[in-house]
Amino acid sequence: MFARNKFFPKFSKRLFCSKSIKTETKYQKRIFSGIQPTGAIHLGNYLGAIAQWVKLQDQGENVIIAIADLHSMTLPHEPKILSRNIQEIAATLLGCGIDPNRTILFQQSKVAVHSQLSWCLGCICTMPRLAHLPQYKEKSQDLKDIPLGLFVYPVLQAADILAYKATHVPVGEDQIQQIQLSQDLARMFNKKFGETFPIPHALTTGSEYARLRSLRDPSKKMSKSDPDHKSRICLTDRPDDIVRNIKKAVTDFTSEVTYDPEGRPGVSNLINIHSFVTNKSVDDICKDAKNINTGEYKLVVADAVVNFVTPIQDRISGYLSEPQLLLEILEQGREKANAIASKNWDEVQYKLGLNFKVKAAKKVKVCE
């Protein structure tokens, strides 16, 4: 086994609604989530997802995290860039506190059950059902020729979850629809072929940190797909870039530092960021900033963010300098994930009629 990761962030904030996570008693409580290797992780990704996973891990929950490389292929990609991104996302997750001895961390494409189960679920899912999904409409609207993978990727997403009989899936409040198909397909399969899967529940984020806003347009969430890099803070950004981006963050014409998410979304977004990285309350932050203007406050936030991400960056760099260790960690995770998924896949095959059981032949006594 690998030595425990040296760094685990201490989160005293309530990051998600986990009040006694309940599930059907016949199924082991299991939490599944995934992250696409499509570029640098920004602070919104970290606070909205990775910090949740670390919190769940530290609470002793049974957590499985997939690096969703198959999902990252739904749109055109460069193989060399994808390969590098897989290494970087693995290093980032470990650097943020994911412990491979307590959380199963693996590369999705290395466990064949994901693709196998996706095909089987696709055979009971209808095209109109997929066409009505908001994610498909959003991602396909600017494409002339729509890849099949983009159309059916929600089925693969359902397979990711059901392959492990996951009972809970951490999602933001704006992402609940993403697991509804998984719930529907689990019910359809159970009704048609017999009780097999638990109905996965959304483990929703209950925090203002779950959806950090763009630094350039507070009406939008922080996103790595935004072409303007100044709209976000990435965990791997240099200190100078972090300071520059926060200094250029859109606020308003009021110089006082006050918290009003509806009326002053830009300043409130900076306060939320500051609150998380320092573990200070919003009230305390506003009191401390009562004698400075928003321009001066931006420098305070920038300094706090740099202090927060620097140790994470050091650990990420350490893992990236040891690619063999990364491979070993992902292989260890693959073995654990495959053991769970393969057992469930055997059951699915039997329910579908893909496997058959042979009764042991009766022994015939030979008369002498």
UniProtKB/TrEMBL annotation:
One of its GO terms (molecular function) is ATP binding. GO terms for cellular component: mitochondrial matrix. It catalyses: tRNA(Trp) + L-tryptophan + ATP = L-tryptophyl-tRNA(Trp) + AMP + diphosphate + H(+). Its EC number is 6.1.1.2. One of its GO terms (biological process) is mitochondrial tryptophanyl-tRNA aminoacylation. The keyword Lipoprotein does not apply. Keywords: Aminoacyl-tRNA synthetase, ATP-binding, Ligase, Nucleotide-binding, Protein biosynthesis. It is found in: Mitochondrion matrix. SUPFAM superfamilies: Nucleotidylyl transferase (SSF52374). Its main location: mitochondrion. Belongs to the class-I aminoacyl-tRNA synthetase family. NCBIfam families: trpS. Catalyzes the attachment of tryptophan to tRNA(Trp) in a two-step reaction: tryptophan is first activated by ATP to form Trp-AMP and then transferred to the acceptor end of tRNA(Trp). This is Tryptophan--tRNA ligase, mitochondrial. It comes from Diabrotica balteata (Banded cucumber beetle).
